[in-house]
């Protein structure tokens, strides 16, 4: 996913697909691969949120269910086990959502991997790195030469 695509993600994690909606960034032309990746990521997000909400609802329902006066140890143990299972599933759903956000951040920061030979004509990364290194060295020299106050 390109940074331009991620810039169109709204606060709720959905891509703004309304052509009449105003946005600060121009809408890029998406390829079929970008559209399918976007849809895949949105589906993952929706499934993770749905699982999170379902597990939380189940957990609250179990906690609010009265045990009853004549409840046996087996009933109490069963409810306790159900709550433990739902808690573990809730944690798993939260971890899935965190994993998705980490993957989105990685795609935003590093971008998609390039194919062999793709982007080699740019060749400015090494030059830019050398320029940044020279600037940092000059700043360090200036700070070393400046009198200490």
Q: What do these coordinates show?
A:
It holds the Pfam family Med22. By secondary structure, the chain is mainly alpha-helical. The protein has four helices and no strands. The protein has a domain at about 1-15 and about 30-115. It is about 65% helix and about 0% strand. Helix 2 (about 30-65) runs antiparallel to helix 3 (about 75-110).
Distance between the termini: 49 Å
Counted by DSSP, the helix tally is 4
Structural class: mainly alpha
Note poorly predicted spans: 1-28
The coarse silhouette is elongated
Question: How big a fraction of the residues is strand?
Answer: under 5%
The helix fraction, in percent, is 55-70%
Radius of gyration: 26 Å
Number of strands: 0
Q: Report the biggest beta sheet as strand number plus sense, adding barrel if it closes.
A: none
Average pLDDT works out at: 76
The helix-strand sequence is HHHH
């Amino acid at each position: 996913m390109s940074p331009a695509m991620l810039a169109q993600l709204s606060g709720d994690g959905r891509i703004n697909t309304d052509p009449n909606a105003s946005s600060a960034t121009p809408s890029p032309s998406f390829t079929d691969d970008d559209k399918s990746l976007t849809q895949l990521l949105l589906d993952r997000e929706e499934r993770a949120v749905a699982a999170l909400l379902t597990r939380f609802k189940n957990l609250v329902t179990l906690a609010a269910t009265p045990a009853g006066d004549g409840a046996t140890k087996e009933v109490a143990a069963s409810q306790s086990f159900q709550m433990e299972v739902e808690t573990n599933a809730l944690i798993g759903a939260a971890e899935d959502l965190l994993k998705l956000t980490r993957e989105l951040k990685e795609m935003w920061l590093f971008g998609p991997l390039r194919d062999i030979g793709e982007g080699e004509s740019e060749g400015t990364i090494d030059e830019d790195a050398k320029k940044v290194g020279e600037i940092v060295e000059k700043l360090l020299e200036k700070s070393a030469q400046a009198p200490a106050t």
